[in-house]
Amino acid sequence: MTDLHRLSIRELSEGLQSSKFSSRELTQHYLKRIEKIDAQVKSYVTVTPELALAQADAADAAIQAGNASVLAGIPLAHKDIFCTQGVRTSAGSKMLDNFISPYDATVVSKAKAAGLVTLGKVNMDEFAMGSTSESSYYGATKNPWNLDYVPGGSSGGSAAVVAADLAPFATGTDTGGSIRQPASFCGLTGLKPTYGRVSRFGIIAFASSLDQAGPMARSAEDCAYLMNVIAGHDAKDSTSVDKEVDDYVANLNATSVKGLRIGIPKQYFNVAGLAADVKARVEESLKKLEDMGAILVEVDLNMVEAYVPTYYLIAPAEASSNLSRYDGVRYGYRCENPVDLMDLYKRSRSEGFGEEVKRRILIGTYALSAGYYDAYYVKAQKVRRLIQQDFLKAFEQVDVIAAPSAPTTAYKIGANLSPTEMYLGDVYTLAVNLAGLPAINAPVGLDDHNLPVGLQLIGNYWSESQLLSIVHQYQQNTDFHTQRAAIAEENA
Fold first, then answer.
1. Is 8 a catalytic residue?
2. Total Cβ atoms within 10 A of residue 274
3. Using CA of residue 204, residue 214, residue 117, residue 59, what is the dihedral sign?
4. DSSP state of 245
5. Among 188, 217, 263, 450, which one is least packed by beta carbons within 10 Å?
6. What digits encode the pLDDT tens for the residues 346-403?
7. Is 178 among the catalytic positions?
């Protein structure tokens, strides 16, 4: 079969369970596509054919024995921030270019237990710091819709592999929008769960109070299948919440769009830099939801101007602390011929980290330093609480809140955005992480340059099922999620 990569997760599962094709055939199909196409997209950092085929054979045996899970034998790509036993786990950095993980992240071990097949590890902004996937030590990943453009970041590789049909779905992480923004740029569905819903154990840390793993796929239904695998409490993660997990697939039609109150923050649609065609596509999608029975309610979110400065104090401060472990001593990059211990520290870190990572470490170290800790970091944490309260007040009036996922569509590769320009591009996503809320991106059309536009729906705590259900029903009434990127169409 030549069109296996065009099947949904449900169709792949049904095909495998009924022996229309084997996991080995499906895995080989994807490995051939990777070999043929990925030199142009540059989404994979490491491809693992031997591991993938061994897992595929094990899945085929389990299916034949009648004791396989519903997802057994389906290939998956992992963002290269998830530790994977015996496989290089680089976080997109020279610092970890030689790091072979001795253990699996919980997300990876859960995927293995479900019989999913690991195709490989995909590219990302270094240590998840960036919005374009250009800060990777391995070079820029390209947007499958137009190879002159970025796929977004930091989970740009995860978005690109799905958009190019080089994996049926992928894991990503979201610290300030790093699932939703690349999903928006690449025409995909991407879910950032409630903080604590998915284990962070084995995820290379950027900002511990903000990082959260989630699924990236073509549709809400496909994301729901992966959420059923990765969600849940983990005793190895002290920030994981012991709360009952929904059956996200079974609940796809549980929320009625009819009567659903969707909050429209007027401040979000007056943000400087919101592109006219992005605004138009988002408003068209909201009109469609209204036609389906939703009620649009104007709400106030008054802390918008505080989002970017608050995030870019807290996240770099936590990064400064987390990345202090990379000192050239225990693991990772070590400079050659250090003259003494201080020289080892200085040169290992200055040579091993890229420019954006060093910039954020410097900002964070400054914010945490004596004399500035109270003025910057502590104050930012107080503002963070006000941002959370702002959302909770809005949720007293509405069920979900709508916004663009990003003020623009994808940037051109090499656009050389200033750090401030790049940071302002995250204005619609940062606050969700600061408040620990769940949010989802849904593709809602193309801009004037035929690049995807995304709608973001923000939910109250633990409302992942509701968000997936709303988007699923929207996708039953639209076809934006079925549109294929140029390179995928050319290699259909």
1. no
2. 17
3. positive
4. P
5. 450
6. 999 999 999 999 999 999 999 999 989 999 999 999 999 999 999 999 999 999 999 9
7. yes
Euclidean distance between CA atoms 189 and 20, whole angstroms: 27
Q: pTM of this prediction?
A: 0.97
Helix (H, G, I), strand (E, B) or coil at 259: coil
Element (H, E) at 143: none
The pair phi, psi for residue 399, each rounded to 5°, is -90, -40
Instruction: Give the pLDDT confidence of 189-245 residue by residue, as tens digits.
Output: 999 999 999 999 999 999 999 999 999 999 999 999 999 999 999 999 999 999 999
Find the catalytic residue in 43, 93, 155, 178: 178
Task: Please pick, among 79, 110, 121, 192, the residue that the annotation labels catalytic.
Answer: 79
Asked if 228 and 10 touch (Cβ cutoff 8 Å), the reply is: no
Contacts of 408 (CB under 8 A, 6+ apart): 273, 275, 278, 425
Strand 400-404 to 452-459 pairing: antiparallel
What is the token pair recorded at 330?
């225990």
Per the CB < 8 A criterion, the answer to whether 175 and 209 are in contact is no
User: What are the DSSP calls for 463-490, one per residue?
Assistant: -HHHHHHHHHHHHHS--GGG---HHHHH
- Give me the residue label for tokens 């019989």: 115
Q: How confident is the model at residue 1 (pLDDT cuts 50, 70, 90)?
A: low
Query: What residues pair up with 172 in beta bridges, in sequence order?
Result: 214
d(CA 286, CA 465): 20
List 397's β-bridge partners, or say none.
Answer: none
What one-letter code names the amino acid at 386?
A: L
Q: What sections of 92-170 are H helices per DSSP?
A: 106-113, 156-163
Encoded amino acid at 400, one letter:
V
Q: 101 and 107 in contact (C-beta within 8 Å)? A: no
Which band of pLDDT confidence, cut at 50, 70 and 90, is reported for residue 416?
Answer: confident
Distance, in Å, from the CA atom of 321 to the CA atom of 16, rounded to the nearest integer, reads 46
Q: pLDDT tens across 418-472, in order?
A: 888 888 899 999 999 999 999 999 999 999 999 999 999 999 999 999 999 999 9
SS3 state of residue 437: coil
Question: What's the rounded Cα separation, in Å, for the pair 184 and 218?
Answer: 11
CA–CA distance, 459 with 457 (Å, rounded to integer): 7
154 catalytically annotated: yes
The answer to whether 137 and 97 have CB atoms below 8 angstroms apart is: yes
- Alpha-carbon distance 44 to 87, whole Å? 13
Contact yes or no for 29/148 (Cβ under 8 A): no
Q: What share of the chain is helix, strand, coil (3-state, %, to 5)?
A: 40, 15, 45
Question: Which of 104, 84, 100 is closest to 331 using CA atoms?
Answer: 100
DSSP 8-state symbol, 325: G
Phi/psi for 225 (5° steps) reads -60, -45
Q: Which residue among 93, 133, 136, 154 is the active-site one?
A: 154
The helix (H) or strand (E) run that includes residue 59 is helix 49-65
